[in-house]
Amino acid sequence: MTADAALPTVFIVDDDLAVRQSLSLLIRSMSLPVETFESAQDFLGRGDPARPGCLVLDIRMPGMSGLELQDELARRDFSLPVIFITGHGDIGMAVRAMKSGAVDFIEKPFNDQVLLERINQAIELDRVRRAERGELADIASRLQLLSPREREVMERIVAGQANKVIAIDLGLSERTVEIHRAKVMAKTGAGSLAELVSMVTRMNGNGG
Amino acid sequence: MSKHQASAPDGLEARYQGVIEATVDGVIIIDEAGRIETFNSAAERIFGYRADEVLGQNVAILMPKPDATQHDAYMQRYLAGGEPRIIGIGRQVLGRRKSGEVFPLELGVGEIDDLTPRRFIGTVRDITRRRQLEDALAAREQELSQLLDHAPIGIFAAASSGRIVQVNPAFCALTGYEDAALLNTTVSDLTVPEDRNYLREAYVDVFEGITPACQCRLRWTHRDGGIIHVELHVATVASGTPLVIGQVLDRTEQVRSERESREVSARLAHAGRVSTLGEMASAIAHEINQPLTAISAFAQATRRILERGEPDVAMLRETLESIGAQALRAGDVVRRIRGFVSNRDSARTAADLNDIVAGALEFADFDLRAHEVSVLTRYAPGLPPVVVDPLQIQQVCLNLVRNAIDAMDAQAPATRRLEIITSGGNNGVVLRCTDSGPGVPADMRSRLFQPFQTTKAEGMGMGLSISASIVAAHGGRLRYADDAADGACFVMELPAALE
Predict the structure, then answer these.
(1) Mutate which of B279, B293, B329 to disrupt the A interface (most A C-beta within 10 Å)?
(2) Which of A131, B410, B460, B490 counts the most CB atoms within 10 A of its CB?
(3) What are the pLDDT digits (tens) for B290-307?
(4) Where are the beta strands (DSSP E) in B272-339?
(5) ipTM surpassing 0.90
């Protein structure tokens, strides 16, 4: 079942064997890879944060409940989108789960079409989030290549200063500023000034 | 004028002398000038003078001032034809003993006018002792009155008619009336009509001397119309006068706090039962939901696999087996619930349906009053006993009452009526529980006793379903009566215990 670790996988955590088996079969019938876990502890032990996909989590379980697992994953920077499955009368818990960042909850027993939709949405969300995180990591590594002087020049370019002004401010010739500027563009891979501004803004927006 | 102690005035017959001597009161005879002519032994005892010390002396020596200095003037005024102020009248005056002690005495004065010159005869009685007693009595009365005025409890005196003749300030404060208003009333007037018979019974026994005192707890009406709870102690006055003394303790606050604590415990007991039922329903829902979820997912997966073509037959067979197993699992849960409900034979005992229903109403009392539902109960006397688990049947009754309260919640309080009637017949007993709510729509009635049927926003729809199971497990039946004129009517029938 651990086919390709890079393929988005549906991770199911439910204490009920029959629910696990049936859910696993249903999701496989939708041509999606599935892995099942019989408890929250089981998932914390075997789950791999690097693997994409989504988490289908029973809200009511003995031992660590679905909500507690959600909190624990957040603490561990486990960013897998969570779909809760709830029973009758668990609406209050489901609302709490949503507030804690769950993408959705579906009530047992569920309609397969609804489940498939939710799973696809969650997987897509995970893909977008991972891509985003990948791009940010990429930008960060490229900015890492800049020398201190090039970084100084870049900050002024992004702030909208002309080469002449930057040259006077930093006590450089205008020609030298032009060379630094070309290196910044080359090292960051930015095709235009607009692209460079966007990169820096995203990095700063992400908490630096 | 003789100087002899017992000498009579001239012309007074000797036999009078004997009478005067023997008189227990002091006798003093004076002449027109106020000089003492006769002073008998009793007078000697009273004033402390021997007769020979006073005979011939002005009578004023027997008086303190101002009488002593004015006496001559009094006499002259009278002799000159003035109105008599003391003669033939008698009064209490002050005397003065030889020792100088001033004391109260009762004085009567007469004129002996058949003698010339005229004489006056005075009889004196020492009333020092009497005055002391009177003073002591007055002081005692003052003390008693103080005691009454400051007593923290209400005290009254009443005649045998029950009419109140005296009250203390605490009694006035308790009832809210002025004492003047109370003096024309009876204890019975103050008592609420429902308690008057009880009062009469207790009261009559005291008046008729059957018991010397009685004590009873009553409700009185305060002047402001409110009810006050009192404890009344009534006792006859020892002197035998047709008078009783009553003491009244205000128990209103105590009754209120007792009732509150009773309500709290009833509410807790009630909450305990209801939440148990609610938790049970929730647990049942979860238990059944698990296999249903599995069945549904297996079935949907199977359909998808079939739709894809070239199905793995072995896998499909396995899936179908799983579906069957899960259906059996759900059935097992249902069986366990039935067992839970009926497997309680050990708790069964012969009981009176009336007692069970009354117990349930007691539990619901708080809710009924909180929702201002008026309850009419008619308990058939002499019902045959039923062999049941009283707690379970009580739970059923309580559930019916609670449903009725909920059903009437949307209408005006004055129109909220609950009728609880028990009866016997057909080798069993019957409870009819009828409310004045909108009733159950005809299209709902057939599903009424199925689980998860509810019209309540927060209901589980398990109450009637579980209730019906409980009654059925007791060999009885819970049904909806279509014949009710208005509102909903539920009928519980239970078989009578076999002889």
Answers:
(1) B293
(2) B490
(3) 899 999 999 999 998 888
(4) none
(5) no
